[in-house]
Amino acid sequence: MVVTGPDGKSVTVTVADTCPGCAPGSVDLTPTAFQQLASLDVGRLHGISWTLV
């Protein structure tokens, strides 16, 4: 899956499982993948998009 952040940066990740506590359409990224899009201090990113590849 390719996840694109609100500023256009993107990261390719592997889907490992579901996120039962997440809202529909949300993605729970590893810290390493999240840091490719924003600082961990942000906590949650809004305005992301994802595409299955």
Automatic annotation (TrEMBL):
Gene3D superfamilies: RlpA-like domain. It comes from the Eukaryota. Residues 6-43 form the RlpA-like protein double-psi beta-barrel domain. It holds the Pfam family DPBB_1. InterPro entries: Expansin_CellWall, RlpA-like_DPBB, RlpA-like_sf. Keywords: Signal. PANTHER family: PTHR31836, SRCR DOMAIN-CONTAINING PROTEIN-RELATED. This is RlpA-like protein double-psi beta-barrel domain-containing protein.
